[in-house]
Amino acid sequence: MRRVLKYAVGAAGLALLLGACASDDDGDNGTTSDNGAASDLSVGLAFDIGGRGDRSFNDAAAAGLERARDELGVDFQELSPNPDGSNRGELLRELADAGREPIFGIGYAFIEDMDTAAGEYPDVQFIRIDGIPSDHDNVAVMTFADHEGSFLMGVAAALKTESGQVGIIGGNEGAVINAFAAGFKQGVEAVDPSIEIADQRLAAGEDASGFRDAAGARVAAEAMYDRGIDVIYTPAGDSNVGTFQAAADAGKWAIGTDSDQYETVGDPELQEVILTSMLKRVDVAVFDSIAAFADGEDIVSHAYDLSDDGVGYTTSGGFIDDIVDELDDYKQRIVDGEIEVSPTE
Amino acid sequence: MTRLLGWWRRMAPTLVALGVALVITALFILIIGENPLRALAALFDFGETSVAQANSIGVWINRAAPLFLAGLAVSIGFRMGLFNIGVEGQYRIATVVAAGVGAALVLPAPLHVLVIVVAAMAAGAVYAAIPAVLKVTRGVSEVISTIMLNSIAIALAAWMVRVPFVDPDLGPGENVATRRIAESGQFPGLNELFGVIGLEEPRRPVHGFVVVAIVVGIVMAIVLSRSRFGFELRATGLNPFAATANGISSKAMIIKAMLVSGALAGLVGLPDLLGSAHRFQADSFVSGYGFTGIAVALLGRNKPVGIALAALLFAFLDRAGPSLQSEGIPPAAVIIMQGIVVLSVLVVDEVARRGMLRREERRARAQDPATVTEEVAR
Asked: How many CB atoms lie within 10 A of CB A20?
């Protein structure tokens, strides 16, 4: 029985530790400010798993929120889900009960929870970042043409590779990451169809664990670099840092996602290997929605793409200065409809 | 009176441990610069309006039911020294199978639900049979094999929802899911019951499957304490050699315990599946109950009543997450609190056990120093 206890304590400790690691530093919540200024708006925002501090998707949303606080003087409350994401719906209701409006849900995982909550609070405006259109009038959905931005990342990778081999390490096999991969591959092929593309995902199916598996990303990236791949595109949320570490060890390139990861990664050594990042202007979507709501306008669903700079690329670090002209050329051809990027392979 | 005293003796360490946990948590909250008293208030904050309070109670019940079932499943193995770390994978597989089978059939209401429940239990048991057979025939440690099978379960479940059980009418951009289970296969909620006992009705489904969980808990309590299976399980756990010498086949017990554990694990995903999700989709599927169930089983000391209380405590803390965040306390605090509770219960238990042992020893020595020391030393 003693042995039982010993193992069991170990196992339980491990489980709790894993849970705790999955949701570390969610930091300052409910940051409220009285800028005294213009607005008496009180915005609510529920993050995706990982919460504030992921240096990527969630932080992009937080940036938009903070800009709205600074420029529009709105007050806000932000909440993070528990590590298994089971209380997303509760977060939305907590915000609604606290009288926050509009209420943001960050990420496609809010699809069902937000539609359900919107039915319960028909007078409250909800805004979802990512995900399929909603049947509810009070849910606006802001989507991003991830495949178009990823196309440009493919172009950049193809122009920068010396070995003729590039790779992608995605969080999982869900529809969103598939669109990233499809765009990337089309971009590579547009430059040089002979370049080999390796495609690896950190989790099977729609499992979200691949977005917080930096160790797994590192192993996968090391293997790719060993095989001669010299540019890796990494749409995998919190896991990206693993790819960056492997890139720093191997002295090769990695491409970030969502935020300008050169700026957010917070480690000079890792900065040196971040070729560029696929910008997904979640911050713009959040800020624009709040601004529109503050002006009393109706918030309508919008699909951000290259034409309105809702997706794009970064030049921080100056590593792609020599190919900016070519990237902009491809961008223009996509905006003009000359090149059509498909979100599926 | 002696009964009451005995109950008090058993409960006292736990209550002390909860007190210790509360103090440590308060210190932790002080360290991060927040007010522990306000945190405590937030912990017990069920909302201001009566609807919000009813909603909160609903959330509590919905969270406690799967934690209780997971703890129960884990405890069956624990009782005989078998570590089924695989409840996590078993309930994932079982939930996909249940969703697939449930959507493929249309039967009269009670029968439809029954078929889904049986399918889930069977799938959980089959998946748990793999480590059991490996252990019995090849001596593979069930700790290792169940952990490995958890990873395989994720991939297997992803394949099942993608290929055999996929909904052919998914919208564009929608992640894969199984088809929805017809209304006859949905479990009625408890919402109206709230009205009957004089509360407001919660605005969202309160999973009626909690009633099944309670019934299962009672049945398991009787089986464990009154049946031959329960006795053999305990005997094998306390002393496998003595049990074998008395004609209990340890191999048969391993198989039986894992099958029962897996079948119970199969129920973990059903409150949500039958009560509100009505289909399996990886994005909204709640994972992790299998791991948390280990802590719940430990806290509940592998006894059904204890596990129920532990599940209620864990769910209570989980439920408070959003209101704690409103007080500026990070959501990870809830997990830390749960960890502190489990640890302090185990530590205080051990201290109490040793104290009791020493007292017994002293008393026995006072009576007859020669004969008894050997006996109580164990």
From this structure: 17
The residue ranges of every structural domain in chain A are 25-144+283-304, 146-280+315-335
* Minimal C-alpha gap between A2 and chain B (Å): 10
Nearest-5° Cα angle at B279, B275 to B285? 85
Which sequence spans correspond to the domains of chain B?
62-319, 323-378
Which residue carries 């969980």 as its tokens?
Answer: B213
Query: What span, in angstroms and rounded, lies between the C-alpha atoms of B108 and A9?
Result: 45
Q: What is the pTM of this model?
A: 0.83
List pLDDT tens digits, range A318-338. 999 999 999 999 999 999 999
**Strand partners for A280:** A311
Helix-strand-coil percent breakdown of chain B, rounded to 5?
Answer: 75, 0, 25
Element (H, E) at A280: strand A274-280
ipTM of the complex: 0.76
Q: Does B378 have pLDDT greater than 70? A: no
For residue range A50-103, list pLDDT tens digits in order: 788 777 788 889 999 999 999 999 999 999 988 778 888 889 988 998 889 899
- Which fold would CATH assign to domain B62-319? ABC transporter involved in vitamin B12 uptake, BtuC (1.10.3470)
Q: Which of A13, A23, A89 is facing B331, going by the closest CB pair?
A: A23
**At A276, phi and psi to the nearest 5?**
-165, 175
The CATH code that applies to domain A25-144+283-304 is: 3.40.50.2300
Judged by CB atoms closer than 8 Å, whether chains meet at A5 and B346 is answered as yes
* Coil vs helix vs strand at A312: strand
Q: Is A132 on the interface with B (CB under 8 A)?
A: yes
- Contact (CB<8Å) A15/B294: yes
Structure tokens that stand for B18 in this block: 């909860």
The tokens for B179 are 């088809």
- Contact residues, chain A, for B78 at CB < 8 Å: 4, 8
**Dihedral angle of Cα B246, B247, B250, B254, to the nearest 10 degrees:** -110
Spell out which residues of chain B touch residue A19, defining contact as CB-CB under 8 Å: 288, 291-292, 335
What residues have CB less than 8 Å from B21, skipping those under 6 apart? B337, B340, B341, B343, B344, B345
